[in-house]
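User: quick one, sequence for these tokens?
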């Protein structure tokens, strides 16, 4: 090293004259720039070490443990929760075994009494299709699974997806959302869950060949099935459309669990036509008739087969990537009342806690809960309608309660729910 002597050459990086400049290629470099370069190199080395870290899976919970966790957040749907619990356990157990095999570089040995060999057996991914009416808890189930497993989660709407090159969202954006929620950790993202909602909306509604391209239907199914099955997805780091000069992040989707959901309106009619099921009833009240119809619809959806989904408009290759198919029941009034009160984060518990912080005791009569459930059924959006009704009901109360400075008890009655009384 040599310090500059008589003249004050300019730093090639910042252009300033500095009496403490040090001779380094490509010339005299000022101490400020040297310190900056040192810190930059140190941060870059740290970043590279972080990227090389391997994400290790924790112990995979048993199906019973998964269902018990889901019971805290989702009311009813016991059969669906069992099917999901088994599928999710198998998926992450598969990843756990792969990780152990990669670490030990040994192959699985066959159990005693087994004539064949397990060395070349590959366990395929169990992607899931949830069939059920709006507001029955499809999205909540997927979110709850990701929360329990501690893996990143992303939601996409199939109705806005298009083939590459058309106005709309590229299918690859689903993986980009997951990567963002994993804070850019590619290894963590590869063990995440992607939920694709409204998947029934990309079904082909007709067998007639259109003159124009099928931008949002079969074409999207063809693109989706490649990602769902497992492929290297090149994701633009900053989103938007791809262009030749852009750098990409490569994400292998082979181990990402995909859960697709949709209402599949009139799928029950397709199933009914196939099995020739008829229901004979006599009279009864309107409520009993509605319950019978809901039970019949749920029963028919539970018997849906891949060929019914093909007739609905999904291509066979796409259905083949979703081997686990389960139907969710339409929510009854009793289910909606339980949703209001029983789950860990139920609406009644949330509002009770909010008002308690302001010294106000909140209470709902059973008639009020029934009235809220009935209004939600009228809106026809299942559990989603409950929040809208609760927000409408509680707006004035939440406006007046904070800062009132007095301890009081508020009892919500059916008349208040129906708008017949404010107190």
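Assistant:
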């Amino acid at each position: 090293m040599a310090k500059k002597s008589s003249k004050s050459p300019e730093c090639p990086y910042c252009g300033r004259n500095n009496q403490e400049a040090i001779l380094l290629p490509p010339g005299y470099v000022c101490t400020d720039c040297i310190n900056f370069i040192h810190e930059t190199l140190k941060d870059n080395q740290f970043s590279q070490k972080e990227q090389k870290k391997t994400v290790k899976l924790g112990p995979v919970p048993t199906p019973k443990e998964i269902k018990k966790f889901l019971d805290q957040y989702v009311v009813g749907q016991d059969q669906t929760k069992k099917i999901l619990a088994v599928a999710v356990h198998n998926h992450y157990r598969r990843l756990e075994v792969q990780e152990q095999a990669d670490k030990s570089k040994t192959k699985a040995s066959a159990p005693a009494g087994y004539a064949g060999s397990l060395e070349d057996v590959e366990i395929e991914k169990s992607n899931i299709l949830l069939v059920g009416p709006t507001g029955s808890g499809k999205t909540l189930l997927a979110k709850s699974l990701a929360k329990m497993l501690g893996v990143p989660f992303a939601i996409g709407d199939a109705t806005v997806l298009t083939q590459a090159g058309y106005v709309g969202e590229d299918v690859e954006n689903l993986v980009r959302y997951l990567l963002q929620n994993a804070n850019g950790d590619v290894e963590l993202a590869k063990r995440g869950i992607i939920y694709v909602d409204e998947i029934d909306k990309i079904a082909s509604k007709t067998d007639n060949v259109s003159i124009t391209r099928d931008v949002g239907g079969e074409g999207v199914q063809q693109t989706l099935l490649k990602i769902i099955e497992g492929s290297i997805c090149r994701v633009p780091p900053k989103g938007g459309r791809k262009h030749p000069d852009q750098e990409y992040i490569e994400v292998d989707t082979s181990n990402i669990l995909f859960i697709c959901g949709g209402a599949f309106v009139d799928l029950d009619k397709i199933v009914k036509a196939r099995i020739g099921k008829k229901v004979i009833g006599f009279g009864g009240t309107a409520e009993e008739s509605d319950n019978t119809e809901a039970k019949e619809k749920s029963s028919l959806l539970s018997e849906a087969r891949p060929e019914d989904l093909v007739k609905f408009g999904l291509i066979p290759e796409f259905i083949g990537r979703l081997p686990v198919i389960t139907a969710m029941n339409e929510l009854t009034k009793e289910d909606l009342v339980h949703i209001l009160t029983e789950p860990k984060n139920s609406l009644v518990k949330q509002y009770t806690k909010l008002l308690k912080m302001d010294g106000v005791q909140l209470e709902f009569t059973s008639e009020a809960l029934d009235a809220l459930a009935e209004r939600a059924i009228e809106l026809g959006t299942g559990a989603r309608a409950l929040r809208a009704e609760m927000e409408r009901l509680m707006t004035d109360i939440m406006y007046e309660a904070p800062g009132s400075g007095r301890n009081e008890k508020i009892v919500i009655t059916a008349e208040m729910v129906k708008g017949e009384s404010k107190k």
